[in-house]
Amino acid sequence: MDPRGYPVAGRLLGALGRVLRTSGQKTPEANRGNLFIIGAARSGTTVLQGALNHSRSVFLFGEPDIYDEQPSPGFAQRYNTMHRAWRNQETKSSFCPPILEEDGSWPEYWERLSQLYRWVGAKIVTNGSYGPPQIDRLFAFHCRRFYQARYIFTFRRPLAVLRSTRGIQMYAGGEVTTMAANMANYAEMAALYLRALRNLPNVRAVFHEDVNPDTFRELGRWLDVPLDGAESYYDSSRVRSYDASSFTEEERRRLGLLDDVYEAIRAAARENRSRLQLEQNDANLSEGHYTPFGHAARKAEMVATHFRQLAETASSPEES
């Protein structure tokens, strides 16, 4: 018997039984929505996940990395062990409940949870160790498996993201990525948001500093579920403030590039999909050619490429 309490013997018979029992069942379409929160590390993904998981209609896993997870038995043991190693207490955000007769694959848990919740999904977090190949795989996976899902991208001011990321990495004692890599990841997530917005049907952004009760009223209408109490998760007394007083002049210049990206995507989000599909060409020299989406995408790609090149030449976390 494995540590989750699932009998190892008879696993194949159990799996066959589940197929036979569920093959004739039909789940209402309303109960089969998929929902994902995507953002750079320390950009507000965790607090938004908790706020949405407060709803009895939502179940969001915390960083299951299913796009890299093979659909093999033992998902709950792997996932729960990861969160216990991180010292996370058991909540909907960090615990896969034993709802199958034996520990199955992530698609089996997903299917069962979709019979219990209106929205099932996950929080997805990237950091400086990610690069364009991993982000491309992530995007391709979601196009294949979850094209019609709802996606919420989270953004927070760059200084807070960079300082908080460095602080949590040093506290955890694991890998500490370079400042340049973290800056590249921030811009790459901005570019991914715009790519998803233009190519997938249901994409939104939440800006951490702008969250208020209206944010959850709008999200509740979008998801067609009540989100009462969600705003209580945003407690300003628990938010740490950061300043760039210790930054060098060069670091401030680089931070300014990310600030420009942040403001560009905020401006694009305010456009509410206006002229979203208007053709844009990165080689056009006229600023009048670009819509807010085109301007933001061009800037995010240029800044991401710049910082990714810097990250590849930096040999230590202290090098930016």
Describe the structure.
The protein has 320 residues and is an alpha/beta fold. The protein has one domain: Rossmann fold, CATH 3.40.50. It is 46% helix and 10% strand. The chain has 10 helices and 5 strands; from the N terminus they run H-E-H-E-H-H-E-H-E-H-H-E-H-H-H. A 5-stranded parallel sheet has the order 2-3-1-4-5, sandwiched between helices. The relative contact order is 0.14. Residues 1-31 have low confidence and may be disordered.
What keyword list fits this structure?
5-stranded parallel sheet; disordered N terminus; 320 residues; 5 strands; 10 helices; alpha/beta; globular; Rossmann fold
Précis, in short:
With 320 residues, the chain is of the alpha/beta class. It is built from ten helices and five strands, in the order H-E-H-E-H-H-E-H-E-H-H-E-H-H-H. A five-stranded parallel beta sheet has the order 2-3-1-4-5, with helices on both faces.
Task: Explain the layout of strands and helices.
Elements: H1 11-22, E1 33-40, H2 45-53, E2 58-62, H3 75-85, H4 106-114, E3 119-126, H5 132-145, E4 150-155, H6 158-172, H7 179-199, E5 203-207, H8 213-223, H9 249-270, H10 292-313
Parallel strand pairs: 1-3, 1-4, 2-3, 4-5
Helix pairs in contact: 6-7, 7-9, 7-10, 9-10
